[in-house]
């Protein structure tokens, strides 16, 4: 891997680090705004639980991406852990998309691709999220196959 590729991976690592910090700041700010809003405490508690659940899945995605980038920087991307990481990213992304489609079920605003009121509503952003989740699962399989080929080549040498 050349110097240009290492710079690119380092840049992506920097973006993920910045995203991590900004996301944690935004979650903390959202929790503070919810707590000080003066709404019903049950409603506030529900909002905070949903927000923390969303944060868990998003931070898991960011951390797995960061670990994949670190393996690229270490010049060892084809490892079992990256296959697992891509799968986690794919499943977490799909879970977030499905949850978003269910939560948008009662919304009457925006463009809808599929709208089964009040149960389910799929908008273009959620469809794109589903596509990214499937892409991560495909990448997991590509990495698994590349790892098998790498292991076979290591045995023949």
A few lines on this structure:
With 157 residues, this protein is mainly α. 78% of the residues lie in helices and 4% in strands.
Radius of gyration: 19 Å
- Kindly report how far apart the N and C termini lie: 21 Å
Largest sheet: 2 strands, antiparallel
Q: Secondary-structure element sequence?
A: HHHEEH
Model description:
With 157 residues, the chain is mostly helical. It folds into two domains: 1-77; 78-157. It has helices at 3-35, 41-73, 80-103, 124-156; strands at 114-116, 120-122. The protein has a two-stranded antiparallel ribbon with strand order 1-2. α2 (41-73) runs antiparallel to α3 and α3 (80-103) packs antiparallel against α4. It starts with a helix and ends with a helix. The model has no long low-confidence stretch (mean pLDDT 87).
Question: What is the secondary structure topology, with strand pairs?
Answer:
Layout: H1 3-35, H2 41-73, H3 80-103, E1 114-116, E2 120-122, H4 124-156
Antiparallel strand pairs: 1-2
Please describe the structure with a list of short key phrases separated by commas or semicolons.
157 residues, mainly alpha, two-stranded antiparallel sheet, 4 helices, 78% helix, 4% strand
């Amino acid at each position: 891997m050349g110097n240009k590729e290492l710079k690119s991976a380092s840049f992506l690592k920097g973006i993920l680090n910045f995203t991590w910090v900004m996301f944690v700041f935004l979650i903390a700010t959202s929790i503070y705004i919810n707590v000080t809003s003066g709404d019903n405490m049950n409603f506030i508690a529900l909002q905070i639980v949903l927000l923390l659940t969303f944060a868990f899945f998003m931070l898991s995605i960011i951390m797995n991406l960061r670990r994949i980038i670190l393996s690229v920087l270490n010049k060892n991307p084809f490892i079992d852990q990256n296959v697992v990481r891509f799968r986690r990213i794919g499943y977490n992304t799909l879970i977030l998309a499905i949850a978003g489609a269910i939560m948008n079920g009662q919304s009457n605003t925006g463009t809808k691709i599929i709208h089964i009121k009040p149960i389910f509503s799929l908008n273009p952003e959620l469809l794109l999220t589903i596509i990214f989740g499937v892409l991560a699962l495909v990448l997991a399989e590509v990495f698994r196959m590349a790892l098998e080929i790498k292991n076979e080549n290591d045995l023949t040498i």
